Amino acid sequence: MRFPTDDPLAIAIAPPRNESPEDRETRERAELEARRVSDAIDDQIRQERSAMKKKKKPVKVLLLGQSESGKSATLKNFQLQHARREWAEERASWRAVIYLNLIRNIIRVLDILVREMTLAESENRPGSSTTTEYISDSDDETPSSGLSHRFTGKHNFMKRRLGPLRSIQTDLESKLGPETQEVRSTASISATPFDSTVPPLPRRPSRDVGVNSTNGWKSALEKLRPSIVNSARLQRRRDADRNEITDVLLGCKEAMLDLWQDPVVQQVLAHRKTKIEDSPGFFLNDIDRIVSHDYEPTDSDIVRARLRTVGIQQHKVVMDEGNGKEWLLYDVGGTRSSRAAWASYFDDVDAIIFLCPISCFDEQLREDRRVNRLEDSFLLWKSVCSSRILAKTEIILFLNKCDLLHKKIQRGMCVKDHISSYGDRKNDAITVMRYLQQHFKEIYKQYSPEPRPFYLHFTSVIDTEATAATLSVVEESILRTHLRKADLL
Questions:
Q1: Is 181 within 8 Å of 173 (Cβ atoms)?
Q2: 3-state SS class at 201
Q3: Tens of pLDDT along 284-313?
Q4: Helix, strand, coil: what percent of the chain each, to 5?
């Protein structure tokens, strides 16, 4: 074989001029082996490319809404239906969260009682002023005026007997981490800080999070969850701590029941218009059942338990009905200071489930008491609907906490006193729900960048059976949209 003398590559690969038959055979074997390796690499690359094309793209769903709107409870319902093994493994760890919720319920009632008793003592003291200022740490309390309550030695005893619960509260908050702390102020004055012409920052964990943000409230549970990698000594210490907390609660059980059932205490709460039973994480009606060494949280207990979402949390769920289809659910912090991070998750999301608690028409944001919660939800909804990034994204509206709306109206709450546009419409739950449905629909139609279907569900996400039926419909709709985008339908 002759090689052109002016081709450097040909010269480089040309065999030696004086190559012996043995050397030639060795060279040709090496060339064949090199060609075989090269072909194998090319084949592997082709297979990987083909696998990437065939790989199922996960369904991405973003849960949006203000704080305490029901986002985490909705996520728990997804897990209850499709992640039963993980749900069962975490069940025991929720016990500490539920105990913390219960203790906070008791401390809140106890603080109100102490304030009232202090006011009563100052009024009865000769020469004292009766203008003692009342400072509430609640969202819906009003100070009492002109009403005298008959406090007795029993109430002083309850104050002393329930004192140890404060140290247990501090201990549990320390163990569970930042997710236990509610936000009561904010530097953000905007309802929609993510709604900006400034490009969103790259995704990164929130500075508020002391643990990996993709774990969410699961990270708090991990601190209490038994593990095979834990040393026997550490596990014994955890068991001892758990038993100590239960022992203290058992020692206070009768006093807790007495406090919650006491007629004078109920009179005080009613006069201050304090409805603790409407708050997330309410367990005062379950004291007798849950304060026990044998207590195991029920599904309903876990869904009702309150643990704040910090940052943006990613949860993976595999839907059995979808042939093992992987879903990525993003649960977001809903306080105003947390919303700036939302926009970085808008891209490539299949659907948004937006939750608005419609029972909150008479409430203010916990972090900014100047802002009505329903008005805040309207602003959020308008911004999400008008986003051009989300123009082709399926948006599903959950008008949540319908159960609490019914209760408020049954107690005589007048909607038009808080929503001026409600006018002279009938003051019943069904009329209010229809009015809000139409209002949200008008915002959706007016501000959507392009026409798209309007999906709405009235929900009470702490009702696991009803929510399971709702999610079944929602999941089918989202999956069909996802497959349509992938040109598989």
A1: yes
A2: coil
A3: 999 999 999 999 999 999 999 998 877 778
A4: 55, 10, 35
